[in-house]
Amino acid sequence: MIRPLILHPDRLFPVDPGTRSVARRLYEHIRGLPIVCPHGHTEARWFADDAPFGDPLQLLVTPDHYLLRMLYSLGVPLESLGLHPETTAGAAIDARDAWRVFAAHYHVFRATPSRLWLDWVFAEIFRLRHQLSADTADEYFDVIGEQLQTAAFRPRALYERFGIEVLATTESPLDDLQFHRALRASGWSGRIISTFRPDPVVDPEYEGFHAKLAALSELTDRDAFDYPEYLQALRDRRALFASLGTTATDHGHPSAATAQLTAREAQQLFGRVSSSPASAQDAELFRAHMLTVMAGMSLDDGLVMQIHPGSWRNHNAALYRRFGANIGADIPTPTNYVRDLKPLLDRYGNESRLTVILFTLDESTYARELAPLAGHYPALKLGPAWWFHDSPEGMRRFRHQVTETAGFYNTVGFNDDTRAFLSIPARHDVARRIDCGFLAELVTEHRLEEDEAADIAVQLTYTLVKSAYRL
Amino acid sequence: MIRPLILHPDRLFPVDPGTRSVARRLYEHIRGLPIVCPHGHTEARWFADDAPFGDPLQLLVTPDHYLLRMLYSLGVPLESLGLHPETTAGAAIDARDAWRVFAAHYHVFRATPSRLWLDWVFAEIFRLRHQLSADTADEYFDVIGEQLQTAAFRPRALYERFGIEVLATTESPLDDLQFHRALRASGWSGRIISTFRPDPVVDPEYEGFHAKLAALSELTDRDAFDYPEYLQALRDRRALFASLGTTATDHGHPSAATAQLTAREAQQLFGRVSSSPASAQDAELFRAHMLTVMAGMSLDDGLVMQIHPGSWRNHNAALYRRFGANIGADIPTPTNYVRDLKPLLDRYGNESRLTVILFTLDESTYARELAPLAGHYPALKLGPAWWFHDSPEGMRRFRHQVTETAGFYNTVGFNDDTRAFLSIPARHDVARRIDCGFLAELVTEHRLEEDEAADIAVQLTYTLVKSAYRL
Amino acid sequence: MIRPLILHPDRLFPVDPGTRSVARRLYEHIRGLPIVCPHGHTEARWFADDAPFGDPLQLLVTPDHYLLRMLYSLGVPLESLGLHPETTAGAAIDARDAWRVFAAHYHVFRATPSRLWLDWVFAEIFRLRHQLSADTADEYFDVIGEQLQTAAFRPRALYERFGIEVLATTESPLDDLQFHRALRASGWSGRIISTFRPDPVVDPEYEGFHAKLAALSELTDRDAFDYPEYLQALRDRRALFASLGTTATDHGHPSAATAQLTAREAQQLFGRVSSSPASAQDAELFRAHMLTVMAGMSLDDGLVMQIHPGSWRNHNAALYRRFGANIGADIPTPTNYVRDLKPLLDRYGNESRLTVILFTLDESTYARELAPLAGHYPALKLGPAWWFHDSPEGMRRFRHQVTETAGFYNTVGFNDDTRAFLSIPARHDVARRIDCGFLAELVTEHRLEEDEAADIAVQLTYTLVKSAYRL
Fold first, then answer.
1. CATH number of the domain residue B137 falls in
2. Among A261, B347, B370, C269, which residue carries the largest CB count within 10 Å?
3. In a domain, A229, yes or no
4. Are residues B135 and B269 in the same domain?
5. Same domain, A369 and A380
6. Do residues A28 and A59 share a domain?
7. Based on the domain organization, do A172 and A237 belong to the same domain?
8. Each residue of A198-215: pLDDT tens digit?
9. Which residues of A, range 437-466, sit inside 8 Å of B by Cβ?
10. A interface test, pick of C1, C71, C315, C430 with most A CB neighbours within 10 Å
11. Inter-chain contact B316–C350, Cβ cutoff 8 Å?
């Protein structure tokens, strides 16, 4: 069955007609603002090389863990979607065949954010006019594939067409940042910056941790197995990132644990974790310690600190063994911020020169922990609804549950947090529409005047993002 | 005061008039679909014997823990409602007097699902035209009592009038299933099947566990105190249930804990729990082990597995001593699915031939744990909002919190989960109305086209239930 | 920029026009009811002395931890708001200057309850006609300051103008209640009563616990270091409070833990905590024990028991050292009621002569724990949305999440719980509007008839408060 593909101009606005009118006006007020992307996972190389993207499958399906996990959950083998197990040899599947499998299952994404994002990409970028389905799979594959070969669909052209003002990628301290260097040397006006993500060299349970310390030593000409030198090596890399435009760090630990150790305790702990496989307890304590250390470094060098805790990575052990990371088996866990962050807050929480942006996968902490913490500590701000909650309902829960306690000014606008470059405008558009709808309800309930709401809409879309991330 | 009793045709639909119109159309589309009841607690004997139900009190009040707990919480003695303490001798209270007590307190159920269900029963089944209250108590008692004696109100007649397609009861492996056998032999066209609920013989803390193992031995001609024979006895009973139509098992443990033990560990553990009173730790570990074992058996014999964890049974010790179980003192507890299910998922989570349906009493797990798990593992599906959450608001929270991550196709439609046979159509009607209202909002927000919503409404009401439960 | 200050008559009502009309009618039905304040933190001295309040800053800003924490979180030093560190000497800041700082930041309270409450105070009490901002700061300071000196703005006159029927303050057992005595002797018709809050003499971790036991000894002529005498001293003080009008106690423990100890265990535990600094474990156990003891005393003397658990007091250690308590660094923590209250409930839960009112800062317990507990145990009732959740969205979540399981009749109406006397009518008005909006939705969804909703509105505003608190 072939259905028309329609992006309704009122999509995601409140259903009450009066409130919808207010939302529409607020949205018109901010829809033209530039897109600011302070946190994400696109690749600097795309923009450095400016080569055409690959086929529709490689571009839109195989790197998208939202799509893979849903299809897999419904019995679709990952191999049939073009993924190749790391553990076996063999030919890759034909991209068109895999695309057809995806297309035939597209209805399972009804009412999910993936559908919202993809339909926008299909309609707005590729000008497709019918819904994706088994019947339109080939048309999609051909139309998208052809357009991707044209100049207008190269990374830089799309960046400009999307109205992006700045786009942050994420790199390890071990990355040589060659593409970021190349971009700065290229003379292109786009602003692509890196985010400093030190997990590989601060998490003793990171795969190959000791080898990574060795690489850090080599890269910095310091002995990263010696604790003071290790810290200095991290400072060196932060400084290098900052010199290339980086304004923020990011930390993705299993919990939000922080610690305050004496210098002697820290040195001894580092001695243990750097010299042999760490016990689970030592690993957790070292990560906790390093969050506090990193907050101290941020106070020194001005990098904004982001903490993304609470994901159980690679929960599906068998699938991880076969396909590796990032295929959708990361599952949220309960997170305690009030207890876990106390050591860091005891030391740095009152520093208004420091900005620590907190994220959560545990929505029960929005009203109970995060809003009260951010509504008190000068160093804390709240990141937007994250990952599984980066969705219309998720964003509404975020605004409804944090605003009354934290206010708007302890929040930092939207993150698209994506490697799906083409969907960036769609994701920001969803956030803008949901925020305008939320503000419209406040106006219709006479909790805010409409001109105040318009001002806040600009703040949430642009001003707070720039100021929180020091962009 | 006598108030009219009105079931408004638009009840439970969204308040916005435009959205309400969509909901009405969606509801018209599915209202005539058969009722499928894959999980519940009615009694096979009712349909085997087809004898008239008893008086209004016995039928509608004394077996309904929702009613008893609420009235008790407000100071109404259970004795005055016709319950008789197990610990004392004495005459039962007059049924009409108890009914009057119930009627005089009927206003305390305002805005609860009990009120929705009962008003439907009163209006639709018994054609009563005034609200229940002290003033109408006798009229109700007489009118209901008289009708119950007529042929049209016998169990089979009601089953047919309700448009039920299949109705699952729940039995222990020790049940002889005589009424299910009788029903199959009777030639009646109704489809009544059992659900295999092994708690009495897999939970070492179940009252009389050792006696139950002895009974299992006798029933199967196996030595259920010998571990391999015990497992075979369970397989035998599963096969017998399946031969009489059973398609599912059900497991009601205090937590969602699962375990993966070696054969030797399992044998030793069984040795301990089968020979003497189990320690709390051994009991929990054995239950955890048996969930994993049962998943393996389900993979072999195709029975769908339901897990209903997280209820603290008989929390009110004094009341339990006086009146026994099921009088409303079961209270939900926090449940952790991501950690607790991992052993089972490590072993069977990737099996798309296995279906494990998860339920929860801890709504904080909907978006944080259950939707991400079901949205990844092929073996997992999400059961509907359960027990305290089987209500308009509870169902809305379920849909709002799971749909964006798990989609519709990882859910399994509605369970009435009730022993209140007369309320079954009312309960399904509430679910259908709430689902149509939820879908209508998606349509009005332009997140779904109306024809897609109509298709999903059929799925949620009928198709997904039949396929998930293999009916 | 100068904006008009408008309190819209439809504020906080549902956005759907039909539902709003119902809400308006329900609100008209109850808006004239007296204000009943069964729990709060105003000072009896204000009404005993009936002296004019101080300047606008002292009256409205410096005692309000909601304001202080938000401003502090956004980098505003507490000193600039007129707070004086306890640890340093120096002159206080000029009140007008501090007021200007507050005014210049007033926009950060957009969409918070503080804004709702303050705007009401500004518009309804002081007849101000423009929003507070940097531009209107001086006008506000002058207009409010002048009016506060007039007779109509003295505490008793405002009490009468507000239509308050009874107002409960909160005092320690060590308080001599001189102002309550003076008020009873004064012949003034206002009803100001105390609430008995024994934390200082039952919590071994309370600052100066041993000195407080000594003070208790002196006050009661009993040896409060002897366990039986200690209990009798508490009974004496309860009786004294009750003789001056007290109808309730209040307990603010870090957790909801209760215990059931033998007499011997209790005696030994008291021996330890009363003779030397308590271990954390002993302190928690003694608090837990004393909650159960206090429930027993309540059963004897009829005082209603309130439990406000789950706040981590003075989470910001540095700020606490500098400024002391109550400047906004109290942060909620997860709370477990089902496990923690069991010892108390095992002993007293079935007593319908006892009333224990439960509050929470952990909204995840509303539907999972609190509603099921209150919907079963005769001794339990649910207090309203508390503290961070005393807000439009917080109240809606409370009603949406508890009503279907606990019903309306296990709730106790609204608490303003405030030391901000001038905001009391505003806070009750918010609660009334939100309740009417919630009821209106039930009416529009045909879950309740409008006359039933009107009856419930009176119950929630007045009847249930009076009966639950035995006023």
1. 1.10.2020.10
2. B370
3. yes
4. no
5. yes
6. no
7. yes
8. 999 999 999 999 999 999
9. none
10. C315
11. yes
- Amino acid in the structure at residue C330: D
Pairwise CB contact (< 8 Å): A361 & B368: yes
pLDDT tens readout for residues B170-202: 999 999 999 999 999 999 999 999 999 999 999
Cβ-defined contact of C368 to B391 (cutoff 8 Å) = no
Per DSSP, helices labelled H in B276-334 are 280-301, 317-323
Residues C118 and C166 occupy one common structural domain: no
Across the beta sheet with C380-382, what order do the strands follow? C35-37, C164-171, C192-196, C248-251, C304-307, C356-358, C380-382
Contacts of B463 (CB under 8 A, 6+ apart): none
Q: Is C11 a domain residue? A: no
Q: Are B459 and B408 in contact (CB under 8 A)?
A: yes
Chains A–B, number of C-beta pairs less than 8 Å apart: 125
Residues of B in contact with A113 (CB under 8 A): 404
| Residue-level pLDDT at C87 | 65
Per the CB < 8 Å rule, is C361 touching A369?
no
Residue C40 lies in a domain: yes
| Residue A37, helix vs strand vs coil | strand
Write down the pLDDT at residue A88: 65
Q: Print the domain residue range for C277.
A: 17-52+151-468
Instruction: Point out the least confidently predicted range of A382-386, C306-310, C318-322, C395-399.
Output: C318-322
Cα separation, B158 vs B150, whole angstroms: 11
When divided into structural domains, chain C yields a total of 2
If contacts are CB pairs under 8 Å, which of residues 312-341 in chain A contact chain C? Answer: 336, 338-339
Question: Does pTM surpass 0.90?
Answer: yes
Residues B268 and B122 in one domain: no
Q: Is the pLDDT of residue A258 over 90?
A: yes
Residues 6+ apart with CB under 8 A from C280: C205
pLDDT category at C43 given cuts 50, 70, 90 is very high
Identify the residue among B5, B70, B80, B110 best suited for mutation to test binding to C, counting C beta carbons within 10 A and taking the highest: B110
pLDDT tens for each residue of C280-321: 999 999 999 999 999 999 999 999 999 999 999 999 999 999
Do A145 and A184 belong to one domain? no
Please state the length of chain C. 471
Same domain, B219 and B293: yes
Question: Can you give the pLDDT at residue C160?
Answer: 98
Residue C174: per-residue pLDDT:
98
Question: What mean pLDDT comes out for the span C330-359?
Answer: 97
DSSP line for A205-258: TSTTHHHHHHHHHHHHTS-TTSHHHHHHHHHHHHHHHHHTT--EEEE--SS---
The CATH number for C395's domain is: 3.20.20.140
What pLDDT band is residue B87 in, cutting at 50, 70 and 90? low
Relative to beta strand B380-382, strand B356-358 is: parallel
Q: Which of C368, C377, C452 sits opposite B332 (nearest CB)?
A: C368
Is A250 part of a structural domain of the chain? yes
* Run of H or E residues at B251: strand B248-251
Q: Hey, is the C-beta of B342 within 8 angstroms of any chain A C-beta?
A: yes
Distance CA C391, CA C433 (A): 11
What ipTM does the predicted assembly reach? 0.97
Reported as a pLDDT band with limits 50, 70 and 90, residue C80 is: very high
Q: A100, A134, A151 — which closes off a domain?
A: A151
Where among B114, B133, B150 does a domain terminate?
A: B150
Higher pLDDT, A392 or C326: A392
User: Taking all residues of chain C, what is their mean pLDDT, rounded to a whole number?
Assistant: 97
**B372 at A interface, C-beta within 8 A:** yes
The full DSSP string for C128-160 is --B--SGGGHHHHHHHHHHHHTSGGGSHHHHHH
A376 CB within 8 Å of a chain C CB: yes
**Residues B67 and B102: beta-carbon distance below 8 Å:** yes
Structure tokens at A132: 């994706």
